[in-house]
């Protein structure tokens, strides 16, 4: 069965699932494979539990006409998504970057919803499986698609662009992350630049922070909409405060417009301004933009301010890399409140740069006299011996210690790589 025939089938059964534990009635199951699983083995059970068809790529599992055999199930999923994207024919915005892409995607979606029926990536479902599933969730009612794209190896953004075929693109920033896969900071830049390159070849437009020299150096011959604080910026704004929450002043044709967000961290300024720019560019009233940005509440331990019975938590524990960790520490150090406390976890996937980047952060903490700091993870525990910080190898050990510490009336920054699972300690704070 070719992709056109499979797409016709999808039009009649327009829900695709890849997790056999999350079957939806009258859906199509795609049997993906990984290092530790083989979806083909569960194809029959998905049909028994409500799926109408199952796409498999091992012939022995295609036992009747409810099974569709293909050479490669993942490739079929990606081709199916591209075909659906072409049939829909709607504008697609692709968002990538080292830091802030999920927050920016959420902000942009809130703004564009004021005018369009949008469909956006759920969570950070932004890889070679997540992007196709995001596209396949769009339907004939969708007027604007917002697709987050993540990568940890060269070529991945190019591949995702060839699936989603975006008309517009935004790179939030480039920094040191996933160096184990990219090899170097230049590898990061070259991979993110694949979005600019795709849009340059396909007459697309990009939205660019005109104060970011790295991004300016990556531009090709595409159409560009700038945002920032210079004369060439389509949208201009001024940072006012981020203590405890971010407030910006938008320079608007109707006068100064103050946007009081629910986000923590001055580093979110450019993410908010990106959303403002997209909204203005696509004709959304500035009062509606202000309302969308002020009512958006962050979740999933990203840029959250959380008040417990005992303390105030600055939660940014979903992920961490040298760029985002440095920004978070410097932002927290600059805040004027007393009783500051930090709980920081290892930064993972940094390859040969790991030791140096962790040592740089230890020195940054020391220079800012942030002595009330707890470090969690094997890397920090190994490298911090010459400093006076309390360290634990696991979050379980941290939790035991917090039971004895009984922290109260503290302002606590929590940040680390997802693999450290610092969120497990929140209930003790």
TrEMBL record:
The keyword Nucleotidyltransferase does not apply. InterPro entries: Mur-like_cat_sf (IPR036565), Mur_ligase_C (IPR004101), Mur_ligase_C_dom_sf (IPR036615), Mur_ligase_cen (IPR013221), MurCDEF_CellWall_CoF430Synth (IPR051046), MurE/MurF_N (IPR035911), UDP-N-AcMur_synth (IPR005863). It is an enzyme of class 6 (ligase). SUPFAM superfamilies: MurD-like peptide ligases, catalytic domain, MurD-like peptide ligases, peptide-binding domain, MurE/MurF N-terminal domain. The keyword Cell division applies. One of its GO terms (biological process) is peptidoglycan biosynthetic process. Residues 302-418 form the Mur ligase C-terminal domain. Its EC number is 6.3.2.10. GO terms for cellular component: cytoplasm. It holds the Pfam family Mur_ligase_C. Involved in cell wall formation. Catalyzes the final step in the synthesis of UDP-N-acetylmuramoyl-pentapeptide, the precursor of murein. This is UDP-N-acetylmuramoyl-tripeptide--D-alanyl-D-alanine ligase. It comes from Ancylomarina euxinus.
